[in-house]
Amino acid sequence: MVVKSPEPHHFPHNTLDIIKKTNAVKLTKKYAFQADPFIIARNNKLYIFYEAFNFITSRGTLRCRTLNESLAEIDDVKLEGFDDLHCHLSFPFIFYINDKLFMIPESSERREVILFELTEFPARWKKVRTLISGSALTDNVLLSINEKYYLCSTDMADNLVIHTASDLAEPWQQISPELEVCNHHPRGAGAPHYIDNKIYIVTQECLPGEYGKSVYIKALQKLTAQHYEESLVDQLSASVNNSDGIHTLNFSSDVIIYDTKHLAFSLLSPFKKIAYKLITRRRNRRFSSA
Fold this sequence. Notes:
By secondary structure, the protein is mainly β. Helices cover 10% and strands 49% of the residues. The protein has a single domain (2-284), classed as Glycosyl hydrolase domain, family 43 (Tachylectin-2, Chain A, 5 Propeller).
């Protein structure tokens, strides 16, 4: 869902008000699921990087949908440079360092966290290095605090996992700071934002057997090797558009984007779930034995 703000957007203070009172544009559904949108505004166009899920292969691929100033869709391309991973990909977390654009997608099936760099905007990317191996981590978000990098992820049980390094090219070390949290929903739901000397993060509400019920906006009060502290600022619930869930929230200067899900009964649903479990189980066995 894409919302063009009719007034200045001051995250997080009026974010929910804008979403609630502004008509959202729904992107054309081209794939079984379209999720995890991250955006870049460039040359009067909006580039939406997202996961496109295919039930036949039971895995997501990464794509970029391009919109013009009127939010009309003008292009949709598959991102290049990721096919060699042979795994489900999602959550294309993008960020700039020294004017270079990087991405850390979720590749938990491979039990790796991998850094990619853009070579030709928006579709061509190259692998830079594997940051972390041996762990299945989801929805990785990179933070830069006091000249150190922190990679916040969740394991398959939705526990917060944090790694740190002084440079992207250096070895990453897992840390276990004392946690002072506002709730037990740490899974990433979008990019962090540094505003007025404050750091804001977004996480998704995950329930047993279900993730992406709503999105929490939090202020990150402190993050060191010894201590992690956050406080709740607001919550974007599925009631904002009468859906069954929301699990990603991002924005540019005047556009807010979020994904949403609607649960619908289908006679094929049980067979799709069985096929998905069989295919993903086979992939997981292959990566586990590699």
